């Protein structure tokens, strides 16, 4: 996959140069589309957070929402736990 992306990058650079040199213009979109179609696609992988994290989020979400609505700042421990449990950390 990495090789095909590197090859695509090189081909796009070449097209860019040809546009800069006024060699092509109207066919640019078609040529770029053809290049993109040649790149092999990869199946998406699914992610499901561990059960403990979902349980934490479900239990703590209402308390966090209430704090936000009441404009009470979350403490550092709450922020850290929420970020780690949400999969962003």
Number of strands: 0
**Helix content class:** 55-70%
Q: In angstroms, what is the radius of gyration?
A: 24 Å
Question: SS-based structural class?
Answer: mainly alpha
Oligomerization category of the chains in this entry: single chain
- The low-confidence runs, each spanning 5 or more residues with pLDDT under 50, are none
Percent strand equals under 5%
Distance between the termini: 27 Å
Note the total helix count. 4
Average pLDDT, rounded to a whole number, is 79
Give, in order, the helices and strands. Answer: HHHH
Largest sheet: none
* Shape designation: elongated
Task: Note the topology.
Layout: H1 2-20, H2 28-38, H3 51-69, H4 76-86
Helix pairs in contact: 1-2, 3-4
Name the features.
4 helices; mainly alpha; 89 residues
